[in-house]
Amino acid sequence: MALDGTGITIIGGGIGGLTAALALRSRGANVRVLEQADAIREVGAGIQVSPNGFRVLDALGLGDAFRAITVAGQAVSLRDYKRGGEVMRLDLTSLPETETYRFVHRADLVELLAETARQAGVQIRLLQKADTVVPGPKPRVDMVNGDHIDDDLIIGADGLHSVLRPVLNGVEAPFFTGQVAWRAVVPNLMGHPPEARVHMGPGRHLVSYPLRNCQAVNIVAVEERREWQAEGWSHTDDPASLRAAFSSFGGMVPEMLHAVDAPGVWGLFRHNVARKWFGENVALLGDAAHPTLPFMAQGAVMAIEDAWVLADALHKAPDFAEGLHSYQTRRAGRVRRVVEAANGNAWKYHLRNPLVRGVAHLGLGALGRLAPDRMLGQFDWIYKHDVTVG
């Protein structure tokens, strides 16, 4: 269907919502984004954007601008926790430019998307807190302040606590995974190279990589824990708690953690992929449809893919109903497989038994030396996928 002049409202001004705004606007839709904050910003810190995400940004005309704000990953380095010795190294420098892995601060990517969207004519409205969504021939967003907004199509790109998801799927209780994560960004005073390092220890691991022209380092540290009360990004922890949890780690880790000031902390919860992604003239996108644990670094990238496929499906269909059905059909199986891969990945870094860990690390090292292509290629189904083709 021709989207020229179609009115589309997107709830949520994060990476997924803004990418969708650009993709839909490029096909002629009149798009507005409702963001509850007083400014377009992104909580959190760094993200990794794999080639499947870059292809979408490049297709939207952002390739050069995106490269300029990112660090190209040169390697993935798996390391033992005690002394920081390298267990396995995957060299990424031989990959084609279009298949590079990029490290970027969320705020920088959101700023790029928001500025490009505004220049393209997308209306971004701040301080707009949605209360619920009413599907129908003319769907409606009811706002917390009592106002309401009608449009031709409404998209819920509003994350874990989406107001649209329970309308379509009912209220669902998430499952605590028994893991808690800290996130922080520190100055790169320790000379962290342009690579992703995974420091693996008993019951916990820490991932680090550089941001902003290698002037800063992003840290995500995960610890197994029995209990957690709240889910979300808004909790700040005492850095002493983080340092205590990783006090047995050596190598570069102590220096990185010494520089942490006020780390964010959150419990990791497992959610089901939504059964219904759409209703009458409404649709879910990104974490609102399929929250993803961080162990494959695909949460933001799956939202970027969603944005392209949603716009493409609507563009090719005769009406919204068929387009939204096509969107879920094209996306649900892939994101379910990615979510399941992330669910099953963390334990590999948390081996507690010293003998088992030693044998596993020897095996990883041997595979990295003898069959690096096999190690790099095991997730080709994720990274080589291109939603912009076809």
Question: Which keywords apply here?
Answer:
7-stranded mixed beta sheet, 19 strands, 6-stranded mixed beta sheet, D-Amino Acid Oxidase, Chain A, domain 2, 2 domains, 390 residues, alpha/beta, FAD/NAD(P)-binding domain, globular
Please describe what this structure looks like:
With 390 residues, the protein is of the alpha/beta class. It has two domains: 7-70 and 106-173 and 271-344, 3-Layer(bba) Sandwich (FAD/NAD(P)-binding domain); 175-270 and 346-381, D-Amino Acid Oxidase, Chain A, domain 2 (2-Layer Sandwich), CATH 3.30.9. Helices cover 33% and strands 25% of the residues. The chain contains twelve helices and 19 strands. It has a seven-stranded mixed beta sheet. Strand 1, helix 1 (15-25) and strand 2 (30-34) form a beta-alpha-beta unit. Helix 1 runs parallel beside helix 4, helix 2 packs across helix 8 and helix 8 runs antiparallel to helix 9. It is globular, with a radius of gyration of 21 Å.
